[in-house]
Design a protein that fits this description.
The protein is an alpha/beta fold and 282 residues long. The chain is built from 6 helices and 16 strands. The longest helix is centred in the first third of the chain and has 17 residues.
């Protein structure tokens, strides 16, 4: 079974410049595809920027999930034969969501609305994600790839990655806007989530400065053993790539020494002891 190349675009979006950001994203999509990428992932709020100061300002920079940007991406994905995931502010009636759009040659594959919202940037004014976690399935070169989407702060809740993994994800994508003080998450979260769920895990962060916040980059992807396959530094706008094999992520039983050292972090779970995880906190 051949491997699938995934790519992440670490970039510096301009706050409130949807047209300029869209052009830059489509340009990076073409560059990634030219070098063999099958799936290209962009940061959280790559289309709009993140540091809005009011809900009204954010709404002015939001659009429908299948709006003009989606249409432009679908057209380019069709021309290139690739898939893309990008962050945007989604407007749905009077609702505002920090969202992801997953598009491909045939149209919108799916979308995601951020479930966990920190008191930071646009998330101070966004509505809580209102849909359950789900896994999107695409076919690349005759192979099925199952992708689970979550956004930035969601990654700090291990239940998110575990649910997506239990739903069958091969690859977890985490578009982010990690500012300073998130260095520990960038360093340790991705390999840990990959290892504990036996999946590929990919964080795509931004760089640059926006209204006093400096973003740290450090985008990376880890394999199901927690090994870092590719990583960028904290300053560069660049594309990183890795080859992944869905079959590796689906092999949950790890036989280190036959008959002596065998583990399965999915089958060996004991959910009956996990009740407090789902108990509401006052």
């Amino acid at each position: 079974m051949s491997q699938i190349q995934v790519a992440g675009v670490q970039m510096d979006p301009r706050l409130g410049d949807r047209e300029g950001n869209r052009k830059a994203m489509l340009r990076q999509l073409r560059l990634a595809a030219q070098d063999g990428a099958h799936l290209v992932v962009f940061p959280e709020c790559a289309l709009s920027g993140y540091g809005f100061q009011t809900r009204e300002e954010a709404l002015q920079n939001a659009e429908a999930i299948e709006g003009s940007t989606c249409q432009a991406f679908v057209k380019e994905c069709s021309n290139l034969g690739v898939f893309a995931i990008y962050g945007l502010l989604e407007r749905d009636g009077d609702k505002l969501y920090n969202a992801l759009a997953f598009v491909g040659p045939d149209g919108l594959v799916g979308s995601y609305r951020k479930v966990h919202l920190p008191y930071l940037g646009v998330d101070r004014f966004a509505d809580l994600g209102d849909r359950p976690f789900e896994v999107q399935e695409i076919v690349i070169q005759g192979q099925t790839l199952r992708v689970g989407m979550h956004i930035c702060y969601d990654g700090g809740f291990p239940e998110t990655a575990r649910v997506l993994s239990l739903l069958g994800a091969d690859l977890l994508v985490l578009p982010t806007n990690w500012p300073r003080h998130a260095e520990c998450a960038a360093e340790h979260m991705i390999p840990t989530r990959a290892m504990e769920n036996v999946v590929y895990c990919m964080a795509v962060n931004r760089v640059g400065e926006e209204r006093g916040f400096r973003f740290i980059g450090l985008s990376s992807i880890a394999d199901p053993n927690g090994k870092i396959l590719a990583k960028l530094n904290g300053e560069e706008s660049s594309i990183f790539r890795a080859l992944i094999d869905p079959a590796v992520a689906r092999t949950k039983k790890l036989i280190r020494v036959p008959g002596l050292h065998e583990i399965d972090r999915i089958a060996d779970r004991r959910p009956g002891f996990y009740g407090p995880i789902t108990a509401a906190r006052d």
